[in-house]
Amino acid sequence: MNSSVSQGLPLLKNESGKPALCLVTGATGYIGGRLIVELLKHGYRVRILARNADRLKYHPWIDQVEVSEGDAHNPDVLAEAMIGVDVAYYLLHALMSKDNFEQEERDMAKGFGEAAKALGVKRIVYLGGIIAPNEVMSPHLQARAETGKILRESGVATIELRAGVVIGSGSASFEMLRYLTERLPIMTVPKWVNVRIQPIAVRDVLRYLVGAASINPTISGVFDIGGPEIFTYKEMMQQYAEAAGLPRRIIIPVPVLTPRLSSGWVGLVTPVPYTLAKRLVASLKNEVVAADDSIRGLIPDPEGGLTPFKRAVQLALTKIKDARVETRWSDASVPWTPSEPLPTDPDWAGGTLYRDVRIVHSPDPIEEVWKRVEAIGGDNGYSLATWAWEVRGFIDKIFGGVGLRRGRRDPNQLQVGDALDFWRVEEIIRPKLLRLRAEMKMPGLAWLEFGLEEDVETGGTILTQVAIYAPKGLLGHAYWWSVWPMHGLVFPSMAKNAALARK
Prior knowledge:
about 500 residues
């Protein structure tokens, strides 16, 4: 049965009469993870291209899709992924890459277009950003525009959908808006808050993406997509406050806040790390308003029309409150962090792997201890020394890291690939093992592991907590010993907090 997002849209079929096969890239990203669900609901066959398929194994739709594993930079991987594909969704970006992300995006788009042409793909659908005419584009928007141009020139019919600020639970733009408005009742802000913006609800973005698959194959081009209202960013913050039941905000634009200072300010106040905040802020200097609405003649509005801004905010906040956020911007990998599994060979770290091991015996059954382990972090905190983790998160934000504010997707349950504050869930074996990989800035790589086993003598549980650090260079060794005094406070408290029920 069609979902409300795609209700009333036609279903594209291939020459044999089967529903079209859609390739979705960026499956671990914010839009990609939700698009997969909508395509399946609408009746399409779906194949996903993922760098690490293990990160997807706990998604409820994993048994309904084909999985092609590999790096989208590799021509052989792309060729294999596109065999038999009718529609290819290009949702890749290098926005979090530290260096030369523009060239990386150009290279990925060129390889993708060439593979699609060679394998006979009928349609490419690409989601980019609205480009304001006659304005100097930010590097982010320039790269998005060039990506679309490269795909359109590939020889494959391409629908490039250009959106502005996407409003939905878990999107980076929404999180930035949410935290700025909720945390700062009085704020001095950069002058870009007076630039006009046409936000769009994520449900409407998904409708356009699904609908683009069945557009006449002779049609190729660029189409702006936007919601039914236009605001300045300042007005959007006030509209958010009203939708969220908050008092009206006092917002004072000042000209002295440069884009660099603005990015640092956004990075400290919101969960969005500095690298991403810098590129989002640079884009907000440009007007983001749809130049035309011709896409609505090809993909009709849903029954009741496009989603108003306040309704989009209310839907997003309800999902956050009910812990039903399917995907978040933080689900995507962070480039500077390790993707390799936990190393077991000390030679991997030049002969040294530091470990801090804490063992606690709990009288509680293993299922009860596991619930506490899996609920670690986010609003639940870590231990009586949660303040120490918050200090570490603040330091991480100052140095451009992800910080501690990413929180959790769900307050009680985790899945492989989840972002959890400045950790990434690397492995779960319920109720035996939880392994977290650090994504904070440090001169080395770090993991935090909780292992549980039943205590046959007492009927309780033995919890083993292991912090593992692989230093890089002399600075890495110095870092471990500089923070070592804190370990005696942080790690015992955290292990006891997980093993023993609070009284």
